[in-house]
Amino acid sequence: MRRKPCFRAATRLYSYLDGEIRAVRRIRIRLHLRLCPNCRQAFRFEKRLRRFVRERAHVDAPPEVVERVRRLIRERSS
Fold first, then answer.
1. How far is it, in rounded angstroms, from Cα 52 to Cα 55?
2. What is the pTM of this model?
3. Between 61 and which of 36, 44, 65, 75 could a Cys-Cys bridge form, CB atoms 3.0 to 4.6 Å apart?
4. How far apart are CA 30 and CA 41, in angstroms?
């Protein structure tokens, strides 16, 4: 019987992490996470993974690409 709340929580994982769900659902998910160690672990992992990617996945574009994009912007805004 626990699968149904776990399924609901999992299907709303990214909306929850992005803050894109209504307050009532957010409260329900928080309650579920307090009661379900498996889902709590999965949510924590996803949250840490997102933070890791956001902080470390920065790639600078080569200068020629930056210049080409700037040129295209100038051309289209003229």
1. 5
2. 0.62
3. 65
4. 13
